[in-house]
Design brief:
Radius of gyration: 42 Å
Oligomer: single chain
Number of strands: 0
Shape: elongated
Largest sheet: none
Number of helices: 24
Order of helices and strands: HHHHHHHHHHHHHHHHHHHHHHHH
Helix content: over 70%
Structural class: mainly alpha
Length: about 650
């Protein structure tokens, strides 16, 4: 052994009888390992057709593993001993081992350049466990690449791709049932084989992703340079299959640990990351690709709906408004959330993937928030869009017959100074604007309702997944998904606030239009004529409210109409109180003001009851609505009493 080691070190030939014998042994060893490599390369078929052959080869691997372990332990004992041993003493201890010869030959074989093509390499394997693992891995890689090539580049539908890829899942179970038992238990073949399949599949998926994104890979599954068509449905089908494959690897790799359920639950998440680390990374990339594609399509759809809805609002004519069914509701919100719910249904019902569902939900929430911001801009633009003022048609019947307008048309009398009318929109504009604002307010109510329903659906589905989770691995996935759901919830809250703000804007615009018709009439408040017993200032205002609300109650949904009435009377009360405060500052408020104020409050209270009744049975609780408005009107009397007292 010493002479042979020196021979390898000097690079000289071996001519002694001992050296010749050693080389003969190495030649026989090479023949043996060549046979074993061929068996390992075809291990899958041999294990099913001639398992005894594979079993004998594995015995050789175990024997060699034991010999190598004994040799390395002997070397360590010599090195750790306190006595410095001579080379002769070391050789005497290791005299009966061929390991030094094998290790030196293996090192020399690895250091020698590979032979030219056509010549068989004279490779010396000094580690049979490594030979077994590498050869099996190479065989598995070949199998995975062949299946992936057919599935990814030859099949054209998601179902057929999944059917072809299922062969890999069947391979895992074949290993589990027939092959893994032929190997030593300490090899942990359940984990080893699953890891090999997972890593090679991840590599094929990485090449596929380059093809889908248009980047032609130089290596991999052999699909480079081909034009492949992967729809979003195909990607979703592939994601579903990858998850099924990962579940199979976890089920098989953790089989031996069923009796240690607590330990399994604690470590299954770590096992998943170790076993399928690269595959999980590729799965996340495909999830992101799916979400990005789906949201791009959904964004385009939502923007198209909003553009169409905006155009219809701006070009709305009285004739078109008259033909619309009441309440006035645009198809836009329903169309938008039909598309949203369709995408969510795919995620929540057809795919049991909490992570993908949560990511999709968050991305959809971003689109809804973006849509709510755009819709808010549309609402704000309606008031200032000058283009809709152009063109002529018959003037409004309602504005011509409004009691306040009629009162303004009467010349001033009894010495009262005429007040110049402020600039108003044309009558036609006023008419169309009412319908526009009613449509917008109703749309906001629909948006608000549908957005809340989206939140409920997502939370309910995640709750079902949470209750059905039976392992720690599933719980870990759910926790990751729930972090994304938190972001989804925050985005949806912002969207709902935006829709509510748009609703408030449209309602405030409606209130503004109504109050514009009575601004001249309200100038009579708190003057000499107002103190007279027959003053009809508030009566005229209430008649105008009623005139508008006859139509608005029909145009608006019951809940929106309630909000309109509250806003209308809130503004009316604020205007009335502001006038009182101004008169109080001027020192004009006197005790004789109680009677006309109570008269005005009584008229307004009766008017509120009538206007609430116009909402019909659709209002949630007319008594509550009426009480809220009446309580607001009563504050006028209370504030006046304080002014008179002080």
């Amino acid at each position: 052994v010493k002479a042979l080691k020196q021979c390898f070190a000097d690079g000289r030939g071996c001519y002694s009888e001992f050296d010749t014998l050693a080389h003969g042994w190495l030649e026989e060893w090479t023949h043996l390992t060549t046979i074993m490599e061929a068996v390992f390369r075809a291990y899958f078929s041999i294990a099913t057709q001639n398992p005894g052959l594979l079993l004998e080869c594995m015995k050789v691997v175990e024997v060699h593993e034991n010999v190598a372990a004994d040799y390395h332990r002997a070397c360590q004992r010599i090195e750790k001993s306190g006595v410095l041993a001579s080379k002769e003493e070391k050789d005497a201890v290791l005299l009966h081992s061929m390991m030094p010869v094998l290790l030196e030959a293996g090192h020399a074989s690895r250091s020698t350049p590979r032979p030219a093509a056509g010549k068989s390499p004279n490779q010396v394997h000094d580690n049979l466990v490594d030979l077994f693992v590498k050869t099996v891995s190479s065989s598995i890689k070949k199998r995975v690449v062949e299946v992936a090539r057919q599935a990814f580049y030859e099949e054209t539908s998601g179902d057929t791709r999944s059917l072809v890829l299922d062969a890999l899942v069947e391979d895992l179970y074949t290993h589990h049932e027939d092959i893994n038992v032929l190997c030593p238990e300490r090899f942990n073949m359940a984990m080893t084989v699953c890891t090999m399949y997972s890593e090679h599949l991840a590599s094929c998926l990485r090449d596929l992703l380059r093809e889908i994104q248009g980047s032609r890979g130089q290596s991999g599954a052999g699909g480079a340079g081909q034009d492949i068509s992967f729809s979003n449905a195909d990607i979703l089908s592939l994601i579903t299959w990858i998850e099924r494959f990962i579940s199979a690897t976890l089920k098989i790799s953790l089989t031996k640990r069923r009796s240690f359920k607590t330990e399994q639950d604690l470590q299954s998440g770590q096992v998943s990351d170790t076993l399928n680390g690269e595959l999980l990374s590729q799965l996340d990339i495909f999830r992101k690709l799916y979400v990005r594609r789906a949201c791009a399509k959904l964004r385009e759809w939502m923007q198209g709906i909003l553009s169409k809805e905006t155009l219809c609002l701006k070009e709305l004519t009285p004739e078109q408004a008259e033909k619309m069914s009441t309440p006035l509701i645009s198809a836009g919100p329903i169309d938008v959330f039909s598309a949203v719910q369709s995408e969510l249904h795919t995620m929540l019902e057809e795919v049991s993937d909490p992570t993908l569902a949560a990511w999709s939900a968050s991305s959809i929430a971003e689109l809804i928030l973006e849509h709510s911001e755009d819709f808010e801009n549309v609402v704000e633009d309606i008031e200032y869009d000058e283009q809709r003022y152009k063109g002529g048609s018959d003037s409004l019947e309602r504005s011509n017959s409004s009691p306040a307008v009629f009162a303004k048309s009467i010349p001033p009398f009894l010495g009262r100074l005429a007040v110049a009318e402020p600039h108003h929109q044309t009558l036609e504009t006023n008419q169309v604007t009412v319908e526009q604002y009613c449509i917008v307010a109703n749309s906001c109510a629909v948006y608000h309702k549908e957005a809340s329903e989206v939140v409920r659906l997502v939370e309910a589905k995640l709750g079902v997944w949470d209750l059905s989770s039976t392992s720690s691995a599933t719980s870990i996935v759910l926790r990751d998904a729930q972090r994304s759901v938190k972001r989804f919830e925050n985005l949806m809250k912002s969207s709902i606030v935006r829709f509510q703000r748009s609703s408030n804007l449209s309602i405030n615009f409606l209130v503004k239009l109504v109050l514009q018709d009575i601004d001249q009439t309200l100038l009579d408040l708190f003057g000499e004529s107002w103190l007279a017993e027959g003053n009809r200032c508030i009566e005229t205002c209430c008649a105008t409210f009623h005139d508008y609300c006859i139509d608005i109650a029909e145009y608006l949904q019951p809940g929106v109409y309630t909000e309109f009435l509250r806003a209308l009377f809130d503004r009316f009360v604020n205007y009335y109180l502001s006038g009182l405060y101004s008169c109080y500052s001027d020192g004009r408020v006197e005790a004789n003001w109680k009677k006309p104020v109570k008269r005005d409050v009584k008229i307004a209270t009766e008017c509120a009851s009538v206007l609430v009744s116009l909402g019909g049975s659709g209002l949630c609780d007319t008594s509550i609505v009426s009480k809220g408005i009446k309580d607001g009107l009563k504050t006028i009397v209370g504030e006046l009493a304080k002014m008179i007292k002080t």
